[in-house]
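Give me C-alpha cells for this 123-residue protein.
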Amino acid sequence: MPQIFADVDRDKVLKQGVAVEDVYQTMQAFLGGLYLNQFNRLGGSGECFLQSEGEERLSDQDIGHYYVRNNDGKMVPLSALATTRRISGPEYTNRFNLYRAAQVLGTSAPGYSSGQAMTASKK
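Here you go.
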C-alpha cells in the first residue's frame, strides 16, 4: 500500500526549542486523530476527538500547514522539523503484546479435539 513516511529531524527539533513528543502528538492529532476527553450532554456521554478535515491531509505537503509551539511560545511549522517521502508498506500488521504476529486459522480434523489440534500445531 502507498504510504507517506515522516522523518523527524531531532536535532532541528531541539534547536528550535520544541519538545519531540509535541511534534509526534501534533502529527498524530492532525494527520490521524487524537482522543481528547468525554462530555455529558442531554443525559448521555460522548467522546471528543481532534482531527483535521480530510481535504487538509490528502498530500504530504499538507504537513506545512501544521504548527507546534516551542519553549518561547512561538509557532514552528512541522515542515521545518520533518521531511516526508512516499514509501510502500503493508496495509496493516497484526500484533500481539507489541510484537509482530501472524494470524493462523485452522480447525481440528474429524475425530480430534481442539486441544489436540493446538498441541499438534505447536510442534
